[in-house]
Amino acid sequence: MNQMKLKIYLFRHGQSHYNKHQWFTGWIDSKMTSEGFKNARNIAKKLQHKRIDIAYHTRLSRSRQTLDEVLRYHPECKQIIKDDRMIERCYGKLQKHSHQEFMQGIESTVIKAMEKRYGKMPREARSTVGMEIARSIYDIYHRSYDIPPPGGESVKDVEKRVQSFIKDLLKKMKKEKVNVAISAHGNSMRPFRRYFEKLSLKEMMSLENPWDDYFEYTVNVK
User: Which of 44, 146, 169, 214 could pair with 70 as two cysteines, CB 3.0-4.6 Å apart?
Assistant: First the structure.
C-alpha cells in the first residue's frame, strides 16, 4: 500500500511589542508590532503554494493574527482550531518586567546583602559581582529546562503539554489525511522541534526560533 506524505507547517508568531522591548511576555497578550505583521506576511508568502487543510492557534492575539495572514492564501483550509497546549511558556511573576529590570533588581539586592554583612565594596566589585550573579540567575530562569521562574512554568512543563498536543495531532492527521499549519510561540516550538528533529535536550535549549520563517515536517500515513 502506498504511503501518503502529510505535512506539518510550524511557525512562530510575528514580533510583539514585548519581544521588541525585551520584556518577559509569557501569557501576556502583547500585540504585534508593524515589524511583526511584516514577519507574518513573509511566512504567508513562503507558504502560499502549500496545501493547508487544518490550522491551529492559541488564545493569544499574536498567534491568531499571524495565522490570519497565512490563511489569506488558503481558502482550502476547512478548520481553524484554538489549542492552548501550544501557548507560550508562562513566566509567572516575571511577566510584564523587562529582562534588564529583572537583572538590575537582583544586582541591587545582592550588593545590599553583601555590604550589609561585609561592609562597603569597591566600585569595580559592585558592578562586576552584582551583574555576574544577576546574569546567572537570569540564565537559570530563562534557559534552564526544569527550573521554573517564580509562579511560572519550566520548559519541562511546556514540553509535557506540547507532547500531549502532538499525540492528538498525529492521530487526527492520520485519521483525516490532512496537512496542518501551527501558529505557535518561541518556547512551545522547542519541544515540538525536539520531537520531530530528534534533538538532544541541550540542542533544544539552544534553539532560537525565527519570527519570519517556518519549519516543515512530514508524517507518513498508509
Answer: 44
